[in-house]
Amino acid sequence: MMHFTAVNYERSIDFLVNEGGGVSSHYLIPMLNDESYPKSHIEVLQLVDEKERAWHAGQSYWQGRSSLNDSSIGIEIVNIPECIESDVPAGFIKPKDMCIFPEFEHKQIELLIALSKDILARNPDITPTAVVGHSDIAPSRKNDPGPRFPWQKLYQAGIGAWYDNDTVAEYWQLFNHQSPSTGLLQEALNIYGYAIDKTGVLDRQTLDVLGAFQMHFIPWQVTYQADTKTAATIFALLEKYFEPQLSALMTQYQSESAIIDNFTPLTSQLNMLFLASAQGTQHLYNGNRASFLAIANKGTLTIESTNVISADIFINNQKLNLGNVFTQNPAKPQSLSIAKRTQNRINSLRVENIRASINNTPAEIAISIPYPTINTLAMLNSMRPKVDFSKLDQFIQNDISKGFPGASIVVVHKGNIIKQQAYGYALKYDEQQRAVNAPAPMTTSTMFDLASNTKVFATTLAVMKLVDEGKLSLTTPIAHYLAEYQGGGRDTRTIADLLSHTSGYNSEVQFFKNNSPFGDLFFSQDKVLTSEFLLNQVPFSNARRSTQNYSDTNFMILGLLVERITHMPLDQYVETYIYAPLGLSNTLFVPLSKGKQAYQFAATELQGNTRGGRVTFDNIRSGVIQGQVHDEKAHYSMQGVAGHAGLFSTAQDLAVLAQLLLNGGGYGNVHLFSQYTINRFVHPEFVRDSMGLGWRLSSPETRWHFGSYASSSAYGHTGWTGTATVIDPELDLAIIYLSNKKHSPLSEQGGRLQFSGDQYPSARYGNIMNLVYEAVLAQTAVK
Which residues form the N-acetylmuramoyl-L-alanine amidase domain (predicted)? Predict the structure, then answer.
């Protein structure tokens, strides 16, 4: 194990020999250009016998071993870098000190090579990858022997490990097409020897390890960041020294790349196999019947068959005309329309009289039916009676004429979009609170900052999927998944406590400013630092878990939990595994960094987060916010991706997600979770009436959100920026109402600062929901 002393020869001897301060080393190599060195030539000094423990490693880990003092030989080399402590403002992760590392003397390296060869000859069990630096085995504490240490020269002398340039080039070309995930890179570094947990995110431990690795193997590029060159280098080293482990890692990489490039899970809601006996008489058992969801006058059924000459298939007791489906390419999937037979919600399927074409040979029919998908307004029959939403239109338009900025609404009833309309303006005011000369109209494709609707349409959906897959248990303590979530009662908190807001956290911690109620104790504008605060420092406001206290902190922790379990950033996980399979290209985090333009978004606040200069903190935004998440904790402290806020979407995209939930967890050929899982989240077994697990529930206390007509089975959420969603399974109804009510002038009323947009009737969600329900119920009564 290689070290530099960071002090001259005299001080090195004091530290390692004379002072008895608990530090020692097996060998010391002096530096000739050192006034404190008394001799005219340098020679290797042995300070501790190799058979004895020397205290040079400290808290350490390498290749499965920890506390390496008792299993390593330490070599200290006199070398004195000049380091300056980083002048980084509070609230950010402090980077490593800026150091000027001097070259090692040529004679020092000559002596080191001779000494190392001698040690290796006497200890043949020390492999090339077990020749390391102090920073390799303690990356969070140490930076020696530094980037000037000639590892490649030692390798050329037969000491230690190095990579082949051609192999690095091959992996670099591959990774330029698709970079390995952070989790995969963490796993690769761990295989090589580093102490690193697979979290899937660039946390502090990962940045430290990346810096140590780069100082050892890419000393001309020490950035402490993951890039394709670093990834290519570690994989090249694994190919050379850990080929068996690399094989499994590359299989995982190829699988991840294929999923990310083209992730389209095909899982219809119904996939059944119907059999007949060899004598041609069908077995009489319940397997020849099934139910499925559908939208009236819509739907398809796919058939594959083996050794079948004929059969009878019934939808809702009506026999299908199968034509020559069993005689023309029977093994090829054939799609049949069942639109003339389907009804809304529950439908029946029955298969009878399967006859084999070859006796004494099994005959079978495989049938699949996809989940319902939404009928858009354009798809509906023009002769279909239309729901009268004129009162709703007049209500919103009246507010628009008086200054309310804008809104977009989609209403889905029985699988049909029966209302889709945009009102007012996406951008109406400038940062001086003046109406602009050419306001940008709101459109049905305008994207909105969903604010706290992120909690349900990103984080809760992700948790539901993980629960359904058996990767997460609602009643398991959080510390089971996040090992650092310890102390102060944290060991008793469960996933359900976070989802139901019964964990005991205060409503929020304003990490983004250093004059919050906590002072600068939790000040952070750095996601890595904020994550550390969340997991082991933010205190509970009360210890009573039966008390419900709505808190953003719960969902910030849940976002980190999803990242830890999936080994992916939250945005990458939900965008890859939930939104992309559903074709939702306008539902995403940090959209401006992913190709979207500011004009595509409804504006939120006019003056950044300053409230017209009445609020101030470090790095505060000014000007109209458009396409950036408004929420300060998400924007400043989590870099735009958080479990409680940060998601953007359109009313149309959210309608698809609502229909997915009404369908029982699937949409088209995509299955995300089961109806059983949905029921667990919206029928609270852990908490009181108004809050399920993630979802807010319809109750007398939540009429301000759901209105007066919502059934007791309805659920949804709201967002501070002006967004509200209602999903009502009893009526097969979903309402998506997105407004930009905060995009409005500020005023003081009763000593309180208020947005004028909040004062309009259209800003009160219960009003909107009541008008929608009245229109839908009136049309239903007519029928």
Answer: 1-146
336: containing domain: 270-369
For residue 376, tell me if it sits in a domain. no
Tell me how crowded residue 263 is: count the other CB atoms within 10 A of its CB: 13
Q: What is the CATH number of the domain that holds 257?
A: 1.10.101.10
For 179-212, the pLDDT digits (tens) are 888 999 999 999 999 999 988 888 889 999 999 9
Are 211 and 598 in contact by the 8 Å Cβ rule? The answer is: no
Answer with the one of 162, 192, 216 that is the final residue of a domain. 162
Judge whether 419 lies within some domain.
Answer: no
How many structural domains compose the chain? 4
CATH of residue 708: 3.40.710.10
In a domain, 411, yes or no: no
Q: In one letter, which amino acid is 359?
A: N
Tell me the C-alpha distance between 374 and 381, whole Å.
14
Rounded Cα distance, 20 and 6, in Å: 18
| Extended strands (E) in 358-490 | 363-369, 406-413, 416-429, 435-441, 448-449
End position of a domain, from candidates 99, 130, 162: 162
Own/partner contacts of 679-686, CB < 8 Å, gap of 24 or more, are 680/467, 680/474, 681/460, 681/464, 681/499, 682/713, 682/715, 684/500, 686/474, 686/496, 686/497, 686/500, 686/502
How far does Cα 766 stand from its chain's mean position? Answer: 32
pLDDT in tens, 511-533: 999 887 776 789 999 999 999 99
- The kind and range of the H/E element at 294 are strand 289-294
Cβ distance 742 to 757 under 8 Å?
A: yes
pLDDT digits (tens, 9 = 90+) for 30-40: 999 899 999 98
The neighbour count for residue 301, using CB atoms within 10 Å, is 22
Angle at alpha carbon of residue 308, lines to 306 and 311, rounded to 5°: 130
CATH of the domain at 100: 3.40.80.10
Integer CA distances (angstroms), 224 to 89, 95, 170, in order: 19, 9, 23
Global pTM reads 0.83
Q: Tell me which residue of 408, 420, 409 sits closest to 375, measured CA to CA.
A: 420
Mapping DSSP onto H, E and C, the string for 605-670 reads CCCCCCCCCCCCCCCCCCCCCCCCCCCHHHHHHCCCCCCCCCCEECHHHHHHHHHHHHCCCEECCE
Dump pLDDT digits (tens) for 680-717: 999 866 555 588 999 999 999 999 999 999 999 999 99
Instruction: Please say if 304 is a catalytic residue.
Output: no
CATH number reported for the structural domain that contains residue 311 in this entry? 2.60.120
Are both 131 and 13 inside the same structural domain?
yes
For residues 544 and 620, membership in a common domain is answered with yes
Q: Are residues 668 and 549 in the same domain?
A: yes
Burial (CB count within 10 angstroms: exposed 0-12, middle 13-18, buried 19+), residue 754: middle
pLDDT at 258: 65
User: Are 354 and 442 members of one domain?
Assistant: no
How far apart CA 250 and CA 759 sit, in angstroms, is 57
Question: Is 327 in the same domain as 434?
Answer: no
Q: How many CB atoms lie within 10 A of CB 186?
A: 26
Task: Compute the distance between CA of residue 556 and CA of residue 632 in angstroms, rounded to an integer.
Answer: 13
Residue 293 half-sphere exposure toward CB, CA atoms < 13 A: 24
Residues 78 and 199 in one domain: no
Alpha-helical runs (H) found in 375-454? 390-402, 454
Q: Are residues 41 and 73 in the same domain?
A: yes
Token couple for 245? 């482990």
Catalytic annotation, pick one of 10, 19, 35, 76: 76
Question: Is residue 227 one of the residues assigned to a domain?
Answer: yes
> In terms of domains, do 642 and 659 share one?
yes
Q: Is 753 helix (H, G, I), strand (E, B) or coil?
A: strand
